[in-house]
C-alpha cells in the first residue's frame, strides 16, 4: 500500500513547473511555505546555470522544509537530457516529473537514490503507457491547465486513471483555490498541480507586465490553440494581441522542437495561463498565497463535514 503524503507537505500542492516563470526563488519560497516547488530544467539556459540553480535550491532548504521537484523533458529532440540526469543524481530532487516523452530514461537514475518518478500526461493513452513503465505517480494535466493543456476534466481524468493505476496522482487544470484542492483530493487525487495561481507571485521569474496581465485578466481572456508551438496550449489573448497577432486568425506553426538550444521567443513574447485566471487579485508573495490556500482548504473541509453530517 502506498504511503499517504510521502512528501510530508503542509498542503497537498505542487507549485507547477512553468516555462520561463519557475526559478530558484519561486521553488525555495514554495518549499519554505510547506508545498513542493518545481521548475523545468530548460529554464536554466546552460548546464552550468542549471547546476547553479540546483545547488542554490539544495543549500537554501532546511530538513523541515518541503522537498523540491525537478521537471525534465524526455523527448528525443531534447539534447541535454544525459547531462541533466548527472545533476539529478548529484542533487537528488525528491521527485522528477518527466514531460513530452517516455519516463523510462530517468527511472534508473532517480530510483537509485530513492526518489519518485512522476510522468506528465495529458490523456489516458499516455497515462497507461507511463503506468506500464513503472512510474510512482502521474501528473494528470487536464482541461483548464495553462501552457500545454489536456482535454479531460480533472474529475473525469482522476476517475479514469484510478481504474488502472494505484500510484500517486497529481492533477492540474483550473485548480486555483483551496476549495478546489479539497475537491480534487476528495475525488481521489493525492496532490494538486497548481501553476496559474503562482504566476504573479513576487518570487516568480515572469516579467512584471506578464504578472500584471494575469492579475487583470479572467478566463474569458484565454485562447486554446496549437498555432503557436504546434501543440495545443492555453494562451493569454492580450499577449497575442501585444505580439501583433490576431487571436481569431492564427496560422499553425507545426514546429515541435524541445531542444535546449531551440528558440523560445514564442514563449517569451506570448504568455500562457490556465483557467485559474481571475483568482489572483494582486502581485504577492508565495507565503501569502499558501496561507490563503490553506484557509480556503480547511474551510472547504469544514463545509464538507457539515454537508455530510446527518
TrEMBL record:
This is 2-nitropropane dioxygenase. PANTHER family: BLR1330 PROTEIN, NITRONATE MONOOXYGENASE-RELATED. It comes from the Bacteria. One of its GO terms (molecular function) is dioxygenase activity. It comes from Thalassotalea profundi. Signal peptide: none annotated. It holds the Pfam family NMO. The keyword Oxidoreductase applies. Belongs to the nitronate monooxygenase family. NMO class I subfamily. Keywords: Dioxygenase, Flavoprotein, FMN, Monooxygenase, Oxidoreductase.
